Here is the input.
Amino acid sequence: MGFADSWHVALGAVRRPLSYFGDPEQRLFLPFLLGALGVAVLALLAHRRLTLRALRGLLTPRVWLHQSSLLDYKLLFAKPVIHALFFAPALLSSYALALWTVGRLDAWRGVPGPTALPGWQLRGLYTLVLFVAWDASRFLVHFLAHKVPVLWELHKVHHSAEVMTPFTLYRSHPLESLLFKVRGILVTGLLTGLFFHLFRLSAVQYDFLGVNAVGFVLNLLGGNLRHSHVWLRYPRWLERILISPAQHQLHHSAVMEQCHSNYGVWLSCWDALLGSLRFSDEGRPRRFGLPRRELNHSPHGLASALFAPMWAGARALVPRRWRRTEPAPAQESPAETR
Ligand SMILES: [Zn+2]
Ligand SMILES: [Zn+2]
Here is the structure.
């Protein structure tokens, strides 16, 4: 790609986040933001705490213009440019993968006969399977991001946020976003290919505006409150089924014990299975962010958030005994010991 081409690609990509407000595939889709605001107001009403002060608290500049939030915005615009310039040409589309999968399966197993399942059942099944597979795979990648040292160094960009707004979802290292993108392409491509193979042209999901119906409804019902200061809890029985916004806020706690839990996006069962589920009845985290000993970059600087985690990640790949300088372990408070 020549310089002029790169410039055009970069210019197109930097404008892309502005379209997120009208894109139902993005959590910043305007109806999702309004849905979150509506749920927050209803929650305040239910607790008889709907005051002007509480409403102002939702939109306080102290949070939205905090240095930490400014980095969220910078990453929001910088990442599409980095992806367009370096990664996009190498990425396969999920459609191409689905075609490849159906070709391989047809060749291996032969073309199956027509299914007896009615169309609406098939569509419901595909919608559900896609939702569960997406949720499980997002959990798995997130879980690995906390457990594999090199991935954890990259994932720290998301956790260094000191305040949270819906834009914090987009605060992640470009390499981590790439990993999530590849995961999405693999899951959608392989599953769609499998459904094409089994049921021929019936692999169509129930959707709203082209988005999985289940995910759409959950996003509308306050998905954006996960990254916010609205402490919205569910009853314990419901938190065993769905991760509440409060449970994800616990995941952003500066206490590492809480941070290394609640990896799920929507369903709680994956955390319950691996013993990492925490309930919101243990109370609000006192502080969001990372303790100083875990930080590998400045939580406010774009260049630092882009390059320092890669350096720390590369260091994490080097066996411990080969590292020349090993920082002395910081004093840990008992509450922060993993
Ligand atoms: Zn995390
Ligand atoms: Zn988060």
